[in-house]
Design a protein that fits this description.
The structure holds two protein chains of two kinds. By secondary structure, chain A is an all-beta fold. Chain A is 0% helix and 49% strand. A six-stranded mixed β-sheet of chain A has the order 2-10-9-4-5-6, with no helix packed on it. Chain A is globular, with a radius of gyration of 14 Å. By secondary structure, chain B is mostly beta strands. In chain B, strands 1, 3, 4, 7, 8 and 9 form a six-stranded mixed β-sheet that branches. The mean pLDDT of chain B is 93. The interface between A and B is medium-sized, with 22 and 26 residues.
Chain lengths: 121, 111
């Protein structure tokens, strides 16, 4: 079964740091570029970051550039998001999602169930 | 980054057809056949419904179809069913510095 499982979401104070993880199973992880997408409570989807299949290229939304770092460990089939200098507006459900580069995909599939990050004092 | 523009809500009765629009620019929707659509039920993760404008993944009902004209993509759901009630998001590749962009989402209500 194809599966992505996020973890690491907690309540953190403004200015704090957090590391999210996403564990992949049921598919060939290094065939996929990986993304983080977030959804603030009651709001729409916002793309956050992308990492290439080999970790050699990374990209960020302007809203998180310089504060968040995406990384992956293909030996562990895992994706990470290091989040620093957190702000209240970073409060959201964070999803990891895959993009199949072998198929030349331009779409997000599969998706995890999300992990909730709350930034509050 | 500016999101793609979708109507906030649409509604229809069971059995009817509805269309959700997704308007972008020549730098995203209009410039590439890389539009995808996602269905999200409350408390659930998004689910891919359409990719590359009009292709359906295996397992997605043929009641769902996609199209594009100029800078506007559309998702059509025919033979509406109660289970179709959900939020729908479009997404497109973009040539801007933002590599991924989503629409603001459309809430579909089945009356």
């Amino acid at each position: 079964e194809v599966q992505l499982v996020e973890s690491g979401g907690v309540v953190v104070q403004p200015g704090g740091s957090l590391r999210l993880s996403c564990a992949a199973s049921g598919f060939t992880f290094d065939d996929y570029a990986m993304h983080w997408v977030r959804q603030a409570p009651g709001k729409g989807l916002e793309w956050v970051s992308l990492i290439s299949w080999d970790g050699g290229s990374t990209y960020y939304a302007d809203s998180v550039k310089g504060r968040f770092t995406i990384s992956r460990d293909n030996s562990k089939n895992s994706l990470y998001l290091q989040m620093n200098s957190l702000r209240a507006e970073d409060t959201a459900l964070y999803y990891c999602a895959g993009q199949n580069m072998v198929r030349g995909a331009s779409w997000f599939d599969p998706w995890g169930q999300g992990t909730l990050v709350t930034v509050s004092s | 980054q500016s999101a793609l523009t979708q109507p906030a809500s649409v509604s229809g009765s069971p059995g009817q057809s509805i269309t959700i629009s997704c308007t972008g620019t020549s730098s995203d929707v209009g410039g590439y056949n890389y539009v995808s659509w996602y269905q999200q039920h409350p408390g659930k993760a998004p689910k891919l419904m359409i990719y590359e404008v009009s292709n359906r993944p295996s397992g997605v009902s043929n009641r769902f179809s996609g199209s594009k004209s100029g800078n506007t993509a559309s998702l059509t759901i025919s033979g509406l069913q109660a289970e179709d009630e959900a939020d729908y998001y479009c997404s497109s590749y973009t040539s801007s510095s933002t590599l991924g962009v989503f629409g603001g989402g459309t809430k579909l209500t089945v009356l």
